[in-house]
Design goal:
Blueprint: H1 2-27, E1 32-48, E2 51-66, H2 87-116, E3 118-121, H3 135-139, E4 146-151, E5 157-158, H4 163-170, E6 177-183, E7 186-192, E8 195-197, E9 202-204, E10 213-216, H5 219-245, H6 256-268, H7 273-295, H8 303-316, H9 322-352
Antiparallel strand pairs: 1-2, 3-10, 4-5, 4-6, 6-7, 8-9
Helix pairs in contact: 1-2, 1-6, 1-7, 2-5, 2-7, 2-8, 5-7, 6-7, 6-9
């Protein structure tokens, strides 16, 4: 079953992404030769007007072919090709898939909140207890202390909005950090280094996770909180990417195998169809926001990279050298393949571990 969940998860996210490209391209009159769901050989296709809509054998991925980008036809007017339209229109087409993924994340998360009739509020960054003989107890942390700031060894500083943000960062750093604590209206700073807890298989400082709160919400408020959740996921993902560039958190990366494994684990925890649906929708929301951020990367094979090239062409007022563009495409493709090999190796290693 987890394979089916995995296919549905990626299928929905990629389908919505490609629909965004298709709709905006057609809006600007760009000739779209094919809109495909899946990859590989065609299983079914139907042509409506000028576009062939197809379902392909491998149920992962999808694509839109556009004149002047994916194929050339002599009888298509230049103004109906991707290079033949205004650069700003090209940028809109490239960003459309990303916008659709953010929109999907927002609508799906809002739908979960509507189903619940309430929203979970993340716990405040307040210490509710201290585990004995832990780094936290040795550092003098006490119940009721408010965590105002944490500075990590690489200079990263956070002023936590909630306790979950602390958890996200603590999972990436296992060395000493500086914590600014408020107690009885006074601020003081302590040094603390996590210790390895064998039963948890991770480095911890020894403070329990506070319980989340809950707040009843109406229909309109559900979309407001859905937007807040999507914004928080987006911020966390962006921050994670900036740290990955510095080599921090590489052991946290997951590829298709890791996502498949996590999807199966999460879905197996559901005790009813409705609960399983909520779990699945939450995965869709998180992954959709992640895909949107990932596609914003300034790599030529990503939408963000293509936008960057278009902006450069607008500045220099001429197309980027095709040989240079092809070299950049090949380079970024090789980089992505290396990254995929790395995360696949890491996924397999973690499974056997």
């Amino acid at each position: 079953m987890q394979i089916i969940y995995f296919i549905l998860l990626l299928g929905v996210i990629i389908l919505v992404h490609e629909i965004g490209h298709l709709l905006v391209a057609k809006f600007f009159g760009v000739y779209c030769g094919e809109f495909a769901i899946g990859m590989g050989p065609k299983l079914f296709s139907i042509k409506k007007k000028e576009t062939t809509y197809s379902i392909r054998a491998i149920p992962i991925g999808g694509f839109v072919t556009m004149a002047g980008d994916d194929f050339e036809e002599k009888d298509i007017p230049v103004e109906r090709t991707l290079p033949g339209i205004h650069p700003l229109k090209r940028i809109a087409i490239m960003l459309a898939g990303i916008v659709m993924n953010f929109l999907l994340a927002w609508i799906v998360m809002s739908s979960i909140i509507i189903m619940n009739g309430s929203v979970n509020l993340p716990p405040e960054p307040v210490i509710i207890g201290v585990i004995e003989n832990s780094p936290a107890s040795e550092a003098g942390l006490q119940e009721g202390d408010i965590i105002r700031k944490i500075e990590y060894s690489d200079g990263t500083v956070i002023h936590p909005r909630d306790f979950y943000e602390i958890l996200n960062y603590n999972s990436l750093y296992t060395d000493e950090r500086m914590m600014t604590i408020e107690r009885d209206g006074k601020l003081f700073t302590i040094k603390i280094t996590p210790a390895y807890f064998e039963k948890d298989n991770q480095y911890l400082i020894g403070i329990p996770i506070p319980p989340a709160g809950s707040k009843p919400v109406n229909f309109i408020e559900s979309f407001q909180y859905g937007a807040i959740y999507t914004a928080n996921v987006t911020t966390d993902t962006f921050n994670a990417l900036t740290r990955l560039v510095r080599g921090i958190g590489l052991n946290q990366l997951s590829g298709p195998i890791g996502i498949l494994n996590v999807t199966g684990e999460i879905m197996s925890q559901a005790n009813s169809f409705v609960e399983g649906l909520k779990y699945f929708l939450n995965l869709v929301a998180v992954m959709s926001a992640n895909v949107a951020i990932f596609n914003l990367l300034p790599l030529p094979i990503m939408d963000g990279g293509r936008v960057l090239i278009t902006v450069i062409e607008m500045i220099i007022r001429k197309p980027v050298n095709k040989k240079l563009e092809q070299m950049l495409m090949l380079g970024s493709m090789a980089l992505m393949m290396l990254l995929m090999l790395f995360v696949t190796y890491q996924d397999i290693f973690n499974i056997f571990k």
